[in-house]
Specification:
The structure is a homodimer.
Chain A lengths: L7 H20 L8 H11 L6 H12 L4 H22 L9 E2 L2 E2 L1 H4 L2 H21 L6 H15 L4 H11 L6 H25 L6 H28 L2 H4 L5 H4 L5 H5 L1 H18 L8 H12 L3
Antiparallel strand pairs in A: 1-2
Helix pairs in contact in A: 2-6, 3-4, 3-9, 3-15, 4-6, 4-9, 7-9, 8-9, 9-10, 10-14, 10-15, 14-15
Chain lengths: ~300, ~300
């Protein structure tokens, strides 16, 4: 695979990442507001880190439908808060027991376990608060659909359900369809939600277009996980910003352990192609979505 | 204090409790749907237990405004799912480390800690899903306000924030205002939300009436905690259905340790009176709310 040529995309992403950091700083509870330690821990867990892949997908989908950027900011923040809460809870000793995240001590290490539990819980509430208190659509009924969409993507039939399947899979030999089912939930659901929520902030797409966009989200979400598995097996901790080699150490099934590195890379390339095919009818408005698919598959960290 | 005379109220409450159990059984993910273990643990943590005080408050507030019972069912379920999630997380080893809840092993004892974490997370998502996917009001904008209301009541400025203050208070000597601040968040926020959400399901009250109803909720919420503290210091584990005497053992400040049992009972009586005063203008429609205030203050478990 050739290295991804960043150029213009790189500056588009940087501008949005930096701008979005300010959005999060503003939307999170301020560090001097009571209860201060909890609010500081929430900010610690969300700010200054991460590639913001889900928000970038929301911004790219928003561009496709000429969405108001203030609206997409809120949708992107809600998705990112859900993602951040899942990382905080996932890192806890009773789950993955990880001490390093985005190059920093994990929340329960920097604070304590009880605080990490409450940080995750509070970030989830805040995500739904944001979607309910800001105007995201001219139609309030559409806004309710957006809230439902994020709730389903986060819950037991989405991300949290995928984590439960993940827990049950430790030490087991999964088939490829079982592994795919797990990741479509664990990682895929929220990535799909990011694309859909971004698109819901602007002009309505018809059902066929929305279906194609959702297929794009599904392919990119799965590709993201396949690439994650490859990187986890090949990269080192300092590049990754989180503990490398954890999957093998914990005897978790991954695309690499199941297929081998070469076939996993091949699978990522196929998903990449499927994702781009899904956008074929969208013209130049989908440019950033295409570039994000490239970035997700060809990234090195 | 005289014993609370139940009579007609008792049968009203029983009918709603039993009916509401069916509502929860229907709204929770079915036990045979994947991921099964997570869904079974969610049902284990919510069903067959609890006095359902918050749902009863929602039903009573719904009666005040002639609300459609199907709508109040959903609002009540959302509040109860948030309450249930908070108990599951609260009982975990990194929080209160409790093994008994509603007379049964706590979720992390019956299942495991990782599952308990995901059960709580998923119950929270489901609460917001319910509020977004069912019609609760003729005005969708009012429904968005209801979602915001529950999110704020649950998050870092509500229930979860109160728990954070509670954690920080272990081993400290709090003043009465500090203890009150903690409980207005930890217990009070969700009880107030239950009353308000029930009232939002029916004919709109004016701002003054809504303010009175909210004051009722605030008084009842605080009285609930004061009575809880008294019961914890006096009852035994089998009556309580959860481990008695935990507060003293964990050196947590309570109304009893701060004021003494007698003054704490006096405080509950005053809050009871304030709660009833707040309903003075409402006539017979508020009858069940009054009876619930009586029940909450005069209960023995």
């Amino acid at each position: 695979m050739p290295d991804f040529q960043r150029g213009d995309f790189q500056s588009w992403a940087s501008v949005h990442q930096s701008r979005f950091e300010d959005v999060l700083r503003r939307l999170l509870p301020q560090p001097d507001a009571a209860p201060q330690r909890l609010h500081q821990a929430m900010r610690y867990s969300v700010l200054d880190g991460g590639k913001r892949v889900r928000p970038l997908l929301a911004f790219a989908a928003g561009e496709l439908v000429n969405a108001n950027i203030e609206r997409v900011n809120i949708a992107a923040a809600a998705v990112e808060l859900i993602h951040a809460y899942s990382l905080v809870h996932d890192d806890m000793p009773c789950m993955d027991n990880d001490v390093l995240r985005r190059g920093k001590p994990t929340c329960h290490v920097e604070y304590d376990e009880a605080t990490a539990l409450l940080v995750g819980d509070s970030l989830q509430s805040l995500a739904f608060q944001l979607l309910a208190e800001h105007q995201l659509s001219d139609e309030t009924s559409r806004q309710l659909r957006m809230i439902k969409l994020l709730a389903v993507a986060s819950g037991s039939r989405g991300m949290a359900g995928g984590q439960a399947i993940d827990l049950d899979s430790v030490g087991k030999k999964l088939s490829l369809p079982e592994l795919e089912f797990m990741h479509i939930h664990k990682t895929g659901a929220l990535i799909r939600a990011a694309v859909q929520l971004g698109a819901h902030c602007g002009a309505a797409l018809d059902a066929v277009q929305m279906g194609r966009l959702d297929h794009f989200g599904k392919c990119v979400g799965l590709a993201f996980q396949v690439v994650d598995d490859v990187l986890d097996s090949e990269a080192d901790t300092s590049t990754l910003g989180k503990t490398a080699g954890k999957d093998a150490e914990q005897d978790k099934p991954t695309y690499v352990t199941l297929l081998g590195a070469q076939a996993a890379k091949q699978m990522a390339a196929e998903l990449h192609r499927d994702a781009l095919d899904a956008l074929a009818g969208f013209g130049d408005g989908a440019r950033r979505l295409r570039e994000l698919a490239d970035f997700i598959v060809l990234r090195k960290f």
